[in-house]
Amino acid sequence: MFSVTITGQVALVTGAGRGIGKAIARGLVEAGAVVAVNDIDATSAQRTAAELGGAAQAYPADVSDPGAVQAMIDQIAADLGGPHILVNNAGIEYKTPVLETPVAEWQRTLDVNLSAAFYTSQAAGERMRAAGGGVIVNIASIAGHNIPLPNRASYVASKAGLIGFTKECAREFAAYGIRVNAVCPGVIETEMTAESRSNSAQLEKWLADIPQGRLGTPADVVGLVLFLCSDGARYLTGQAINVDGGKVML
Question: Which CATH superfamily is domain 10-242 in?
Answer without folding.
Answer: NAD(P)-binding Rossmann-like Domain (3.40.50.720)
